[in-house]
């Protein structure tokens, strides 16, 4: 199975900060990667698919990049509603695998 | 509107089985695969498997092979995930999610609300 290594596992940031989360695949996965946001007690929500395509309705401050093995999720200006846990998910092959998650906390 | 509604919380004893349902509405049921993902308390997301509602083909994660069965009922637009030989390690929130395919890639664009399964003696 493809291993997805996500970093950092947690970070503290302030409103307005630029935040970057990375995900590394154990083998090349083209651009078959999505990013999901999960708030406490809620189901995950799709933010980005195909590594860099913004899901409809997701604010433009979220962006994704990367291809092959290295991927990045960037929040250009952190908003109060962005404090959550973020996961990457590879859909290159089965079994699909998630990164360990990054908890974004208020500084 | 498009939604996936899951069955309610379950409490099971070790060794028992649990069957969780996921009822789809607002779209053509047989056009979208359904995935199952679980999340143990305070832990990350774990992919369990997938079912194709059109034909019922399945793929399961290796660690659940032999213990998980995913089925569907096209008359009620419902998919089911049954997990057997439960242990305390299976205590988790179980989610169903709809897979969309866009430009040769895929994603999970709609999720159920989750079903808490508690395994306790």
N/C terminus separation of chain A: 36 Å
Mean pLDDT of chain B: 97
Strand segment tally of chain A: 11
Largest sheet of chain B: 7 strands, mixed
Strand content of chain B: over 45%
Give the topology string of chain A: H per helix, E per strand: EEEEEEEEEEE
Largest interface: A-B, 26 and 24 residues
Helix count, DSSP H or I runs of 4 or more residues of chain B: 0
Topology of chain B as a string of helices (H) and strands (E): EEEEEEEEEEE
The low-confidence runs of chain A, each spanning 5 or more residues with pLDDT under 50, are none
Structural class of chain A: mainly beta
What percent of residues of chain A adopt helix (DSSP H or I)? under 10%
Oligomeric status:
heterodimer
Radius of gyration of chain B: 14 Å
Major beta sheet summary of chain A: 7 strands, mixed
In helices, the fraction of residues of chain B equals under 10%
Please characterize this protein's 3D structure:
The complex is a heterodimer of chains A (107) and B (121). Chain A is mainly beta. Chain A is built from no helices and 11 strands. In chain A, the strands form 2 sheets. In chain A, strands 2, 4, 5, 6, 9, 10 and 11 form a 7-stranded mixed β-sheet that branches. In chain A, strands 1-3-8-7 form a 4-stranded antiparallel β-sheet, with no helix packed on it. Chain A is globular. Chain A starts with a strand and ends with a strand. With 121 residues, chain B is mainly β. In chain B, strands 2, 4, 5, 6, 9, 10 and 11 form a 7-stranded mixed β-sheet that branches. The model of chain B has no long low-confidence stretch (mean pLDDT 97).
